[in-house]
Amino acid sequence: MTDAPPATPPLVALKDIHKTFGAVSALRGVSIDVQPGETFALLGDNAAGKSTLMKVLTGVYQPDRGSIELDGKRTEFPTPSASRDQGVEMVYQDFALADNLDVRTNVFLGREPQKNILGPFLRIIDRKKMEAETKRVLERLDIPINPRLKVKRLSGGQRQAVAIGRALAFDARLIIMDEPTANLSVAKVDKLIEVTQRLKDLGIAVIIITHRLDEAFAVADRFAVMRQGQVVGRFHVGDVTEAQVAHLISHGTLDDYVDHGDGIPAERRRIGSTSSIDVVDAMATRGTTTDGSDS
Amino acid sequence: MSLTTENIKALLGPADLKQGSAATKVKRFVGDYGILIFFALIVVFLAVAAPNFLTLNNLVNVVRQSSIIGLIALGMTFIMITAGIDLSVGSVVGLAGMTFALLAPASGGAFWLPLIVGLGVGLLVGFLSAAMVVWGGILPFLATLATMAIARTAALVITDGQVVSGLSGPAEWLGSGFVGPIPVPVIIFLLAALLCEFVLSRTKFGSHVYAVGGNEESAKKVGISTGRVLFMVYLIGGVTAALGGLVLTARLDGAAPVAGTGYELQVIAAVVIGGTSLFGGVGTIRGTVIGVLLLGVVMNGMNLMGVSSYYQQGVQGIILVLAVLLNRWKSD
In this complex, is the C-beta atom of A214 within 8 Å of any C-beta atom belonging to chain B? Predict the structure, then answer.
């Protein structure tokens, strides 16, 4: 964070988000921001709060406290469709496709374009438009697939392309990809790099939710590490090693990993030496609590 | 992007629909058109073997006899595409037909009231089934087993098990009237089939019916109100079954509380023969109409050839198994 306001506000900023389910504090003051066209990874173990945070961003959950800003302006996502209407699209881990339907129908599933016949009261699905649009978005992704093929005939990579194409067809500005390689037969990190690069070229920001370090390091510009409902570190890729981040994911701190024996606490040295590293949250966590209590 | 085999396949697109060995192609052809070919062969056979078969009179008669099962099968197709089933349709035939018969003489000439109330009874039973399936999370098989019993009981209790006979003229017309040379039940069936075909293949709702049957979780994730879709299909199933009951009552000029018993199995057989999968996501109204007519033609042919009616159910069973086997070879 710099003192001067950035030239362009972040595409989306989640600020101090809290969410509690019964006695469980799923999110305890989480803030992240994503720049336009950026690929951002959200790392963390199971139950770290990644999915809950994304459900807040996609309008599935309402935060108890905190705010969402889009282009620097405060907004609300009271429903999933409100979030989608403002250009935030989700690509689910299982891709949320219906195998029995063809590619074009899947791309527009739930949001089918319609045309009037015999006056305004009788509307039918506009399959021609669906087909043309499907072709267009898949070409933009550089993964051409026949729009009339049934999804059950597609490979894992092609299914993912259809799921991403669905987001593109509705002018997504931010695409959230939940564990994008979990449902591919081979861990196709190369493929994912291609696709995210492609989205970057199109100016679309991507948030990748993952617990796989190699994936995050391969595709992301920046990433945040979550642990027990809080962000415990934000980094630019290249400023830290996978091993350091692995330690952060499991312990919530970077400190006892890098010990040069000069008496300077590791986290302080890192703050002093690398401005892009933000371990404030990590220090805060260490100082306060890791037992889940939220005073 | 590199040209992996996967990408090349994707580029070729429709070509891979035609890929495969000659044996695969033959299988797909038989899977896709087998029932139609079988249907055609039976018609040719009957045209030769049963002299009266290929007369306009008889053909119209076949469609008329099939129209009641056909009407019920239309709604059942919607339900089965969502991976559901409706066992209550036979009881709905009985209850709606009974309601119609009770109200038709009382209202004198106008038959709109008994018609609307009769269809309303179907809606009500459909609503009960839907409520149990959607709100109660009860398996469709069990939910509709319950409504099947409840609706039958209602039909028996209303009349204390008695038969109601004697309908007003206009009500009777529904079953035995003609428009030009075409029987009214045939017209009702064909219009309803056209409407259902339109809804299922052209509208947003129709597309969502397939999506719910194909993958309910995915449908939910993309924002489809799957509960509403399921509710609608059971309401449609209730209305088409009630319409079948009204036509049956009108044709017989009376209603028995046990009317329609066992229809659900005939209807499910016809829908499956028409290519609808019990697992959901697959099926068409066109196919269902063919399934209904195929069974109708076979029954008619057996009657014309003087085959004992004892054999009829067995033959239906054999055709059902044949159709299920053929469906395995479908290209999709």
Answer: no
Please indicate if any CB of chain B lies within 8 Å of the CB of A105.
Answer: yes
Q: Could you tell me the two tokens for A208?
A: 């990748």
Count of A-B CB contacts under 8 Å: 92
Q: Which CATH architecture has domain A1-87+173-295?
A: 3-Layer(aba) Sandwich (3.40)
Within chain A, which residue ranges are assigned CATH 3.40.50.300? 1-87+173-295
Q: CB-CB: which of A98, A100, A146 is closest to B14?
A: A146
Yes or no, beta carbons of B10 and A146 under 8 Å apart: yes
- Are A53 and A17 spatial neighbours (Cβ–Cβ below 8 Å)? yes
Q: Between B2 and A7, where is the model more confident? A: A7
**DSSP-assigned beta bridge partners for residue A28:** A18
The set of residues, in sequence order, having a beta carbon less than 8 Å from that of A58 and lying 6+ positions away, is: A77, A80, A83, A84, A88, A90, A176
Report the predicted TM-score, pTM, of the whole model to 2 decimal places. 0.86
3-state secondary structure of A174: strand
pLDDT at A262 over 80: no
Residues of A in contact with B217 (CB under 8 A): 94, 96
**How confident is the prediction for chain B on average, in pLDDT?**
90
Domain regions of chain B by residue span: 23-327
Q: What was the pLDDT predicted at B190?
A: 96
For domain B23-327, say whether CATH 1.10.3470 is its number: yes
Q: Tell me how close the Cα of A112 comes to any Cα of chain B, in angstroms.
A: 7
